[in-house]
Amino acid sequence: MRKKEMSLGIRWLLISVILCLLPFLFTIGVQDVAGLSPNDAASGPAQGTSEPGKVVRPSDFVGVTIAPTEFIEKPEEGEFPEEVMEALKANPPIPAGPKPKHVEDPRDGKGAPEKKNNFKGIVNSDLGPLPPDNGTAVGPSHVVEAVNDWWQIFDKRTGAPVTSKIPLCGRHGWWSSVFHPPSSKRPICTDPKVIYDHFFNRWIMVDLGLSLKEIGEISYYLLAVSHTSDPTGPWCVWALDAKKNGSATSSEWADYPGLGVDQEAIYITSNQFSEIFPIFKYAKLRIIAKDQLYDNTCGRITWTDFWGLKNPDETRAFTVQPARTYGDPGVEYLINHRSPTGNSLTLWTLTDPLDNPKLSRVKVPVGSYSIPPDAAQCRTETTIETNDARLADVIYRDGVLWAVHTIACPRDNKKACLHLVSIDVSDPDHPKVLDDFSYGAPSKGFSYYFPAIMVDESNNVYVMFNSSSDSQCVDIRYTGRLSGERSNTMPGSSLLKASSTKYEVIYKGRTIKRWGDYSGIALDPEDPNTVWFAGEYAHDNNKWGTWIGAISFKPKTTPTPSLSLEVDRGCGVSGSSYQVGENIVVTYSVGQDAAVTLYRLGHTAEMEVLRASFLTSGDSRALVLDADRAGVETIVLVAETSDGKILSKACTYSIGDVPLDKAEISIDKGCGATYHVGEPITLYLFVDEDSDVSVTDFATDGSISEIIRQHIQGGDTVTIPAQVVGPAGIDTLVMVAETAAGLRVTSACSLVIEE
What we know:
Number of helices: 2
Radius of gyration: 30 Å
Mean pLDDT: 90
CATH superfamily of the largest domain: YVTN repeat-like/Quinoprotein amine dehydrogenase
CATH topology of the largest domain: Methylamine Dehydrogenase, Chain H
Number of strands: 52
Low-confidence stretches: 1-19, 23-39
Shape: elongated
CATH class of the largest domain: Mainly Beta
Largest sheet: 9 strands, mixed
């Protein structure tokens, strides 16, 4: 959106005045915030309440026709008027203080995460809204992507759309039941964010509802929360008045929401602007307790607000980003940058958010940075607008906060780079900077911009971003660093998706350079060492598209010596039962010198030791057994290698046409899967008729023990949570079930354990 035009003389007079006043700009207007004294970190807390919400379902929008969208350049307001921003970006100011270390990207992908999946996201099929503002989340089975002005659900495995594009705004839009200003106000919905709450398995979506007719006259946080982990089911939606500070109505409207989550609450932040000739006034934080969101009643919501947030030097904080929290630090963290130049970040700590919220902050010195220049792209003089140096989403895990933003490259301020920071907050009053470096390829002519960051369960860090140069069209790239690698380092990046054309939008004679305004990233809750992300690319020379990818680091593995254990009719082969009185020929071998022992379970009431011997690598042995009673038996081969590693393998077979599936033991990742020491694991035990059940564990420490003994009703599946215990090796679990009639059946399941 463009503001009302000023005369050329007035515009440049204003630019000159503001540039002269930049050192003092953020102290002006602090006293204008109601209730704020110079020694306060913020005004508040104050409570407010919403109107009741409504229930909506994605299926409600099946068949809704999406008419060609009118061209809308979405509002994206900065600390300074647009003309001042253009002047600053054309000649980025030199920041004071030491520069961060620079890491040059070789762009070779060596050491980067591996690509696991990728597919086309939402594509802008007409001129429509600019830019997309990408919100992305992933759940157990789905990927949800929200952009301006639509959202859509995809199958996580195949990438196939599960729904059509669902309009967010308008008379038939997702928010229409709670946000429905008259069409004369030209309502718009902008800046969508979406998160999968891994604590409670719910989807959370936040959007902004505004009026283009009179900017700032209407301002709402639009909030949606799913009833379950299935995004195709019902959701509650609300419209929360963003002009209210607590319950008191202000004249400021909200832009650029941040969305954070921890165990207790969700956190929405925004920049608040004046209605007339939008001028930044203050940053705001809204706290919403989860219990009222997740009761599925869609009732009134009570919130707590802080507003007028100030940096430690009393200047106004801008774009305060709340953390997406993994774990339970007992507080919620937030961070903001300084602009147009800075050599510090402001770290905020929110304690007791629901009962007695208190907000404090501390200065965190980092390498100096400044607002980034716009980025060159292929085949045109039109640059890509990189916006300012505000932080992207912030991630907390295991006592460390990670943040990333776009800055002018320290070595070449005509190119844009990423600035990555990690902070040890185990003592939030005395934070310690662990990482502080820029990342890019300015020496090759590239600019990097619109990054997103994530940390997985193993504390590996992932970063995605756009890049371009005057000879290369915009692409989507990614990189990452394994936990334990040296700080202030990052491997070469890999390509996810390249644009095949330039991006140049010309509307009514005016060239539009908007890109971003942000990318989306999410951690897979079912595989918490896999990260999903979505970014923007040029779908056509005046249309944007999005592309979704999944990446992870390949686990470091130690080659495991092979074991071979077979019976002559095949292990676990349905329909190949031995008959009572026949012989069973067992063969076994090892791929490394080892002491081996062969056990049989299910033949008698107790486990039998069949043979113990030493085998050299490649040796094969055979053993003949009698099939003398009907049932399902299991043989387990246990080998102890010369380096002390314990390996095991099982073979199950049927005698007397007894079905193999009368009893079954399985695990949550599937038998044969890899687990790490200390990782949780879930066992599932099933019997088709009432049975006394025991489970024997052939553990990797060499012990053999009965870990479960209980009675299970026929047809029931019993779930048993446990934890993987080392050391590394192959662990085998054997279940024996005996019916009241004395029929014994067995089932086996092995897992690979790594440190």
